[in-house]
Amino acid sequence: MKIIQRIGLAVVGLMATMTMQAQETYQELEQLTVNEEVTTVITASEPIRFVDISTDKVVGDQPINNTIRLKPKEGGHADGDVLAIVTIVTERYRTQYALLYTTRLKEAVTDKEIRKQEKTAYNNPAVSMSTEDMTRYAWKVWNSPAKFRNVASKAHRMVMRMNNIYAVGDYFFIDFSVENKTNIRFDIDEIRVKLADKKLSKATNAQVVELTPELMLQGNKSFKYGYRNVIVLKKMTFPNDKVLTIEMTENQISGRNISVSIDYEDVLSADSFNAVMLEEE
């Protein structure tokens, strides 16, 4: 669980304290009434990148990527007291709320969804592609015919293969699938992406680098005969003596596992998508 400190996940200095101007104009902001006995849940339409709570009178956390929870630390305030200004920055917009104290529990906001009119457009320098656009590109890749036939592996009467790899902006989109030729359902424990030496020494694990996907299109946790997904990775380069490996493991102690390795030559041959393809809905 991500704990939101006073400066939350913000860059130091951004809304570090409530300025005099904010104190004088808080009435212009959307106002949320809060109480120490009630958790206020705020939900955004896209992942939240950072949060700032302007005072230490209110605490919060971020249980999932598009939701935060807020609550006053303690009571004893008068009705209408401004406890804090909360600033929420997502991938493409910025929102602020004034948190006003109420002694009446029924007036405290429990569930708040950020509305369109409360959003201020924001060009987040840390985000080169929004999750929404990334998902749309991933579906375009999903709907594209397979161009690779020879990047595959076999294990436990299963075949895992790479179907496509595309380069879009700062990311690689990799389409892969698994064919299960048995009648035993495969319950997925993990899907991991690694960069490893082609000739891995058994004496050390230092030659393996685990990569964190930016997006995985499908969230299916089991399949009987077939599985397919599109995984998105931050664009990278690596030498010819290393391979990019996608590994799927089963969630049993003696479970099956299968992986497919992608050579750098295959990465270099990645096709490019462009913005026009997003418009061809």
Question: What is the compact description of this entry?
Answer:
With 281 residues, the protein is mainly β. It has helices at 20-25, 131-142, 264-268, 275-279, and strands spanning 2-4, 30-34, 40-43, 48-53, 58-64, 67-72, 82-90, 93-101, 111-113, 120-121, 152-155, 158-168, 171-180, 186-197, 209-211, 215-216, 222-223, 226-234, 242-250, 257-263, 271-272.
For the structure shown, list the relevant keywords.
281 residues; five-stranded mixed sheet; elongated; 44% strand; six-stranded mixed sheet; 10% helix; 4 helices
Tell me about this structure:
By secondary structure, the chain is mainly beta. The protein is built from 4 helices and 21 strands. The protein has helices at 20-25, 131-142, 264-268, 275-279; strands at residues 2-4, 30-34, 40-43, 48-53, 58-64, 67-72, 82-90, 93-101, 111-113, 120-121, 152-155, 158-168, 171-180, 186-197, 209-211, 215-216, 222-223, 226-234, 242-250, 257-263, 271-272. A hairpin with a 2-residue loop joins strand 7 and strand 8 (93-101). The longest helix is centred in the middle third of the chain and has 12 residues, at 131-142. It is elongated and about 70 Å long. It starts with a strand and ends with a helix.
